[in-house]
Each structure stands twice: as C-alpha cells, then as structure tokens.
Give the backbone structure.
Amino acid sequence: VAAFGHADVPFERLVEVLNPERSQARHPLFQVALSFQNFERAGLELPGLTVAPVELDDVSAKFDLDVTVAESFDVSGAPAGMSVVWTYATDLFDESTITSFAERFVRIVESVVEDASVPVGDIRLLTDAEFAALARVSGPTVDVEGTLPDLFVRIADSVEADVSVQSGDIDLLDDAESTALAHLSGPTIDVDGTLPDLFVAGAALDPEAIAVRADDRSITYAELDSESTRLARFLIGKGIAPETFVALALPRSYDMIVAVWAVAKTGAAYVPVDPTYPTERVEHMLSDSGARTGITTSEYSGGLPETAEWILLDDPEVSAHLAAISGERLDPGERIAPLRPENTAYLIYTSGSTGLPKGVSVTHGGFANLAAEKRSRYGVGKDSRVLAVASPSFDASVLELLLATPNGATLVIAPPSTYGGVELMNLLRDERVTHAFITPAALGSVDHHDTDDLRVVLVGGESYTSEVVDRWAPGRRFFNVYGPTETTILASSSSALDPGDRLVIGGPLAGREFQVLDSRLHPVPLGVTGELYISGAALARGYHARPALTSGRFVANPFGIAGGRMYRTGDLVRWIRPGELEYVGRSDFQVKVRGLRIELGEIDATLESHESVGFAVTTGHRLESGATVLVAYVQPARGNVVDVDELSDFVGTRLPSYMVPTTFVVIDEVPLTPVGKLDRRALPEPVFESAAFRPPRTPVEEVVASVFAEVLGVERVGLDDDFFALGGNSLSATQVVSRIGAALDAAVPVRALFEASTVEDLADRVADQAGAGDRAPLVAQERPDRVPLSFAQQRMWFLNRLDSASVVNN
C-alpha cells in the first residue's frame, strides 16, 4: 500500500534513478505487468437505451506478458466471479506455454484458498502426475549378471514353482551357471563391481589381447595383469590395505596404468598427484590425504616432498625385488582386509573456494553400473581402441580406463605433452582410435578430416557449441556427457547427437537419480530453470576430512529412502522433456555490460559460426574506469586468417550491439590446463587501441564531438570515437541528445544515438534536421508569493489530510 504513494513519480525521474539499458525491443523498466481491476462495471442507463463497454478483440501487447485480473458481472450487474486475461508477445511465447502458465496460476489460487497459511515458496506448482514424474528421475536398470536382485528373483521363482521346497534346496544358479560351475577348470572370477574386479574380468576375456599402446609399445593384458600383481603384492607387504592411500606422482603413461591397477588390487585408494604441481600444493595433498607411501620415477622424485616414502619404479633394486615376486593372479584373501563396495577407490583433488584443493573420496559402489552401461551405450568391444588423453588428476582418466579395460579393448595413451592440435590428430589417425573422450576446448583444436577410424566421440567437462557437433557428428556417434567428480565420473549422457540437435546433457545413467529443484527444494516444472541434485549409489563418500563441507554439499534427500543423500551440484539445468536435461550454466560465466547480464557462450557460438574461426572464447575485462568490456579470443580455422574488422561486422549483424566484443585477440594456440580444459588465466592480456584521431570537419560534427566530450568528461573526441565505448550509458545518452538538439535547434531522438553511436554517424543522422526544431525558448517567469503544488504534491497533501499522524506524506 505504501508503494501507491509513489504512483505519480515522473517517468523521467525513474529513468534517472534506475538508469536502465534502453532498447527498442522491450520496455526499459519491466517486462511483466499484473493488474487487478476491482472497480464496478461501467455502464449507462438512458430511457430506452443501455450503454456498456465492448472489449476489443484485437489487442497489441505493450509488454512481454500482461496479466489482468478483473471482477466479472452477470447481466444484472451482480458479481459473478473473476476473469483473468493473458496478453502476451507472440514473438516470445506460444499459446501452449501461456496455457500452462494459466493452469499453474489457477493451481496457485486454489492452493491459497485451500490453506491460506501456506508460505508462498511452498505453493505446489506441479500436478500429482508431474510431481511423480519429476521428483525422482532415475537412470535405466542395467542387468549385471550375479547381482543380488537376480538371486532374489530366482529364489522367488523357485518358491512359486514349489512352495514345499526346503530353503537349503532352493537352486540359486540358472542352468548355464550350474553347467559352467559343475565342470569348472581354472580360476573363478568373482565380479562384484569393485575396480580391481572390473580390471581382472577384462584381462580374462583375452589375456593375449593388446591392453595398452604407449610410446609405440604394445602391452598385452597378461603382461599388465602380471606386472600390476607383482607391484600389488609388494605394496601389501608394506602394509597397504583398504582405506589407506597411495600417492601416484606419475604423468599419463603406462607406468601410471600399472600403478593404478596395483593399488586397486590391494584394496587401497590411489591419490593422483601431478609431479609438476608446486611443492606446497603436493605437500597439502599428501598431508590432507594421509598418504605415507607414493609411487613415482627418478625423473620426478627430486621435486617431491619427503613426507612420503617414494617407490621409484625405475630403481634397479625395486625392479629386481618386483621381478622376484609371483605374478600369478592375486587371491582376495591375500589382502590385509576385505574390500567392500563402500571402500574408497581413489581420492581426486579439485579446486576449493578457500584456495586449498579438496579431496573427493570416490568409492567402488558406482563402477559396475557405469561400466555395464558404457558397454551397451557406446558400443565398446574387444576390437575397440580407446584414447587416454586425460590427466591422471582428472577423473576422466578413470572414464577412459572403464571404457577400455572391462571390455578387453586397447587403451591408447597420448604422450604427456599432447592435449590437442596436430599432435592429437596425428595420434588419433596413426593409432586408429575408435572411441575418445575429449574436452570441447581440446576437440576444437583438432582437425576432424583425417580421423576416419574414430567411431564414437564423447565431450564433457565444460560447455560446448553447436559448431562442435556440426564438425564431429557426421559419420560417427557424438555424445555429450556430464558428471561432477562427486558422482563417480559420469552422471548423465545424451543420446547420439546430430548436427542441428539441441545441446543437451541427457538423462541420468544407471544407479543415478536426478532432481531439479528450486531454492526451497521443490521440483520445478518442465522448462523452468532449477539446480540439479543427484542421488543414488554412485555418490562419493564426501570430501576427505572435511565434514562441514561434505554436509553442505551432500544433503538429505527428501524424495528417497530415510537417510538417503543427494549431491547439490550448483549447476543450473531445465527439463526440456521428461528424462532430457538442458544445461543452462553457472553464474561464473556471466558478465554484466551496460547493466545487461550476458551469457558469454552465446557470443562464442556466434564467433565460431564464422568460417575463418576455429575456436573462440569471450571474457569480461574490467577497465580502470570500472566499466566492463567484452574481449574475444579467436583462433583461426585451419588454412584461414581472421580479419578482425570483418569478424566484428559479422557479429554485429547477429547479436545486439552490447554483445559485440570491444576487442578481438587472435591466438595461435588454445591454452589448456593439465586436464585438457581451457586455461582462462593463460589467455594473453588484451590491448585496447584507440581509434586514430580524426578531427571534426563540419560545424555539426564539432557540436556532436564537443557534447560527447562535455557529457563524458573526455578531453578529446574524434570522428571515429564511439559514445558507448567511451563509457556512455543510457542515462547520459538522454543528456547528449538533449544538448545536441538544443545546440542545433533540432528534435534528436535517443534512438538516433543508439543506432549511430560514433560522432561521424550521428552527425550525418542529425545534419538535415538542424534548425527544424521550432522549439519555444525557456524564459524565466515571475515567481509568485505562493508557489503552486504539482499534481503529485497535491496528491501527497490530500493523503496526509486523511491521516495527518502519518509521516509517509509530509
């Protein structure tokens, strides 16, 4: 009610205070209006004549959306309920969307009438059917032979067939298992889904198959299995057991694969440590994890902290000791303690908000479902050749292992110095790689023409553009995968994408459940942005030795079983259809320019659609003046040269002017982090060059230039200087056109400055109007003894008379 006291504030005053970005495409202050009309029905009764208003059917929307609630009356004039009219801009909304809005509006009203005490945030927007469909969206059920559900079904079938059967006589085996186990020769393989079980099962498919290709060397599964078993027995002899940690300070290499297999076979958890990290960071990782034993080589041992006992794989004494140990398959009973799915498999450190990395403790529980679904979804087989290009410190390295090993495929390891570009393209071609997970930044640097053997491409780790799909999807299967480290590598996968498809992250994988919730943990409707929460058996245990941080991100799950947890991802998504998610992004990749919030990905996609651009990324750069400008970094496409002026004009024809980058920086290579993601901090510092000064030539140009300089406080303004690039905004634009109009005796609309923002262009626009203003001069009037009140002041005085004790209207 107090707000009505400001109902008569002049529009010009609102513009001055709020300083909104002006646009011809929308209302500058608001886009949605709600009106409540509770006045009596208008009408006029004359002798023999009744006059009543008739609503026009042809209505033009003044805003994006205008909702008018009005009392209805019957023919006698008595109240007859309420009507709601939705007027909307048809270039923004279609009828089905507005219909869904209207239905939810009715549901809100019904909820409030039913229980007026309900908090606004708890009003239920979803129907029962929608709630059931969206509260718990689960991944598919994967049939993994030998799981407890299989045994339970078999028991139930046996009892149903013969209720008199003794419990000890129930047949737990199907016919094939009974035949195989009755005449079994050789070792048995107990696949229960832990990491070492998956490794051993893959090695048993064909021991003589090539397991690893590294540095032009081929290693069979039998060799890998035997070598890792020797190292595992060596580690067990040093007391390495489940729930202990072993640091692996090795680059991407065959040695790293052997070490991972060996630690997994002991039941312990491995901690990948990049040996090139600063010593202080490595020291923190070792002390935080409690790792007292580490594995490395003499090349890196000199720069590692001495807080751990480092086993050098290339030390002659260590090599001799390992050679004397049996390489026969390790029996689970040799472990110091039993290995269970809830034990930690690896501890990967990610960046932390406090400046220190935090360790994500990932257990064995999510591996079996993930490995089984990868096999069926991506078609990995014994003849497949899987690329290993991820850094060991990135959990995508485990994704690559689980793509190859359980299926008996070959893992092709890229050299540690290879992340993208020609080197990666040559590796894909020469090693005939069939399956690859590559980050979009790295993939964008690779030429797709000479990779005919590549059948399946997975991208993930960061957002991507449609241009990547257009280049890489034809002739192969292209998937977008998504998953935080805290949800065991992957949480979702799109279906195979084709050029032109909507960019989605798909639905949950097996063993995962998705909830898209609002700030009060209510499921959001289809098409509405919410935060993604993930639950299920694949969740990590939490952050190692960080209980407060763990409880803040792994929160209670109100939709599952009692005591269940769900991981709060911080990622914003929306359901575009049941089971299909679209990634919206995070606020980290938004900037505000001239009062408008801009998603930089939209600019990147536009830049990459130009034929001369192979890769583009846009950032917001803060100037010394405090203003934020857009800087675009572009890498030329193969065989092309980027013309910055042409590219700027190209973007200007597709995006609003405020989204056109101020500066373009052409780069030869895309800087990547050790895990293959774009390294934004390594982008070169932009150089802002002023336009070459050209002085005004005509009286009109001199007027425009002088007004620019006066309003913006700039010492010198030339013909090519842009009003907005010099720091102008929508409020100062009104001052500029007013002063130019007064100086030239012309009516200059603000729109003219937005459409022609340089001195030369604006002068050309207004030159023909000079002297045509016909303005009445402002002349000082005689001041009366009693200054009359304005209309707004009269209203305030009137309201004060109704309640003279109030200080609202004084």
